Amino acid sequence: MTTATQTTAKRVLDIRNAPGRHWVGDGLPVHNLFGYNGPGVAARSPFLMLDYGAPYDFGPTTKQLGVGQHPHRGFETVTVVYSGELAHRDNAGGGGTIGPGDVQWMTAGGGIIHEEFHSPGFAKSGGTLEMAQLWVNLPAKDKMTPAGYQPITAAQIPVVDLPDGAGHVRVIAGAWDEAKGPARTFSPITMLDVVLSAGRTAELPQPEGWSTLVVVASGSASVNGTESVTGPAVVTLSTAGQGVTVQAGSDAKLLLLSGEPIDEPVVGYGPFVMNSQQQIVDAINDFNSGRFGQGLN
Fold first, then answer.
1. How many CB atoms lie within 10 A of CB 171?
2. Is the pLDDT of residue 282 over 70?
C-alpha cells in the first residue's frame, strides 16, 4: 500500500465551506465549491469548477427535470452520480444514462452542445439525487480537440480497500496502489472517490508539484492536521510536498483531486474557458454561427 510516512506533508492553503444551494436548470440543486474566477484559480489548476449536489428528494413526475441543451468549449466535464439517475445527450453522438457509482467524462474540446436531465425512469419513480460535477481544464494545445464522451460504469472503476477496514478508494482517473482508473485524460490527473469510516485515517500521498484538493462531500474530516472540516467543503493543499493525511471525524465521503498544474492563462465566460478574451469572443461567435454543429432534436 502506498504510504506517506517518509514524505513531507503538503501544506493547507485554503479551506472553503460550500455556500448555500442554488439550482442549475430545474433539476440540479447544487453547492458551488469553487469556480474559475476569483482567488485560488492557479492553486487549483487544472481543476476549474466543482458543483456538489447534496442529497435531494424528488417526487415522481412526468416533467423532464434538468438542464436543456447548452454549449461548452475548452475543457472537460466530469459527472459522478452517487444516487439517482441522470441522462445525457450531446451533438457529438455521446449519450446514455448514469446511475449510482457511474461517471460521465465529457470532452467539450472545440465545441459541443449537450443536455442533462433526470432519466425517465428516475423521474417516474422519484427518489434521492446526489451527484457532483467537476470541470477540468484542457491545455492550450488541446482546447480545440474534437468533442468526445466517456461513459464509465461503476463496474469499470477499480475499488481498493483501505487497511484495517477503514474504508475504500475508487480509482476514477490516474492510479492508486496498483489500480489504474479507466478515465482517459489530456494532462496527468488523479481522481479518487474515497469513503472513510469515523475515527479512521487514510494516507493518500500525491506527487510533488501537483495541485491537490480534498473535497469533503459529506461527514467531517481533518486534512493534514487541520481542525475538523464538515462537508460540503474543499481543502486546497500546496504543490510542494507529497503527504496527504485524512482522518474522519464521522463517516466521510471524499473526493481527492490531484493534477499537474497547467501554467497558462485562464479566461472564462459562462460555458467557455479559453486562454484569451479574443478566444472567448471567437467561441461566442462560433456558437452563434452554428460552428458547434447542429443542436439536439
1. 22
2. yes
Residue 4, pLDDT score: 43
How long a stretch of residues is the chain? 297
Cα distance between residue 284 and residue 113, in whole Å: 13
Question: Is residue 1 scored above 60 in pLDDT?
Answer: no
Residue 60 has pLDDT above 60, yes or no: yes
Amino acid letter, residue 246? V
Phi, psi of 232 (to 5 degrees): -80, 135
How does pLDDT run across 82-115, given as a tens digit for each residue?
999 999 999 999 999 999 999 999 999 999 999 9
The percentage of residues in the chain with a pLDDT greater than 90, rounded to a whole number, is 95
Query: By three-state DSSP, how is residue 81 classified?
Result: strand
Contact assessment for residue 46 and residue 189, using Cβ atoms and an 8 Å cutoff: yes
Give the torsion through C-alpha atoms of 289, 294, 296, 297, to 10 deg: 110
- Let me know: does 257 contact 235? Beta carbons within 8 Å: no
Question: Residue 144 is placed in which grid cell?
Answer: 480545440
Q: How far apart are CA 57 and CA 102, in angstroms?
A: 19
User: Are 88 and 116 contacting, i.e. CB atoms less than 8 angstroms apart?
Assistant: yes
Please write down the long-range contacts of 289-296, taking CB distance under 8 Å and 24 or more positions apart.
Answer: 291/111, 292/71, 292/73, 292/91, 292/111, 292/112, 292/113, 293/91, 293/92, 293/111, 293/113, 294/91, 294/113, 295/69, 295/91, 295/113, 296/69, 296/89, 296/90, 296/91, 296/113, 296/114, 296/115
| CA separation for the pair 297, 281 (Å, rounded) | 27
Radius of gyration of the chain (CA): 19
The verdict on whether omega for the bond into residue 232 sits within 30 degrees of 0, i.e. cis, is yes
User: pTM for this structure?
Assistant: 0.95
SS3 283: helix
Tally of CB atoms within 10 A around 9: 18
